[in-house]
Design goal:
Layout lengths: L2 H12 L3 E8 L16 E2 L6 E11 L2 E10 L4 E10 L2 E2 L3 E4 L6 E8 L2 E7 L6 E8 L3 E9 L3 E9 L2 E8 L8 E8 L2 E4 L6 E2 L11 E3 L2 E7 L9 E10 L2 E10 L18 E4 L2 E8 L5 H15 L1
Antiparallel strand pairs: 1-2, 1-22, 3-4, 4-5, 5-6, 5-7, 8-9, 9-10, 10-11, 12-13, 13-14, 14-15, 14-16, 17-18, 18-19, 19-20, 21-22
Amino acid sequence: MRVSSILKRIKSVLCPETWCCAVRFNASEDACILNDRNTPFTVLPDSYRYWSADPFLILRNGKYYLFFEMFDRMKRKGLLGCREISESGCSKMKVIYECDCHLSFPFIYEKDGIYYIIPESNKSGELFRLKCTEFPYKWEKEAVIAKQRLVDTVVFCHDETCYYISEEVDDRNVFDRLDLFYDNSGTFTACSSNPVKRDADTARGAGKVFEYDGSYVRPSQNCGASYGACLNFNKIKSISKNGYEESLVLSVSPQDIPFDKADDFIGIHTYNQLGRVETVDLKIPGRFNFLNIFGVFYRLLKRFL
């Protein structure tokens, strides 16, 4: 192995790129990133042990809650976390669910008064669902939806059909496809046209589908230039059990929107909005943290015990 490759590997372990989340409270529910790229987002603080990414929003009893990947530098894996947010600040991050594998992208939704999360859990080889037993901090594994490796799954119900917009992956980690599944009387069924899209620049999901100007918009991330290079907003032109079609409306990089904190953000790959609140995540260049060293020894110890 070349010296340059060894040094690059050491740097990636000791000073890895990290993420943080940011939020924006708008004056009205009509404002969003598609029509306002001037109002600044507030960057939320990470902790020394954890950094955050993949933020999703819930409004309950007049309070906003942020659910996100909570990456543990010591254990070197993602957990699921939550914190309350408001215009005056935010609470501390708190772990709400952990399992043996890495977890991220906590797609959260409510049905019949109960909250559920479908996390990204592809390393476990299955797509599963969590059920909230005490909001917002207690969750339990409730069901396995599919025995497949899928990332960043988004549920979108349209014309009385529940769709799962996702992406099948393998160990190559090439994020260049979009796959569509649907609920067929309780059975997780693949669209006959999968993959419904092939494009590393616009395929991989980046948040919930939302409505804007009379159309449905699907956020996606650019994984072609680099992982999380920018956000895309795609207008859904058609969706059915037989296929899917969309068109790109807008791409946004961290340099296209302002933040209250000056930093050299080098990526952005999740967007969600609810009411008058929006949230994104931001990639931060690699910086040293002592816990990164601890994490290496922790993983080695687990491997040999």
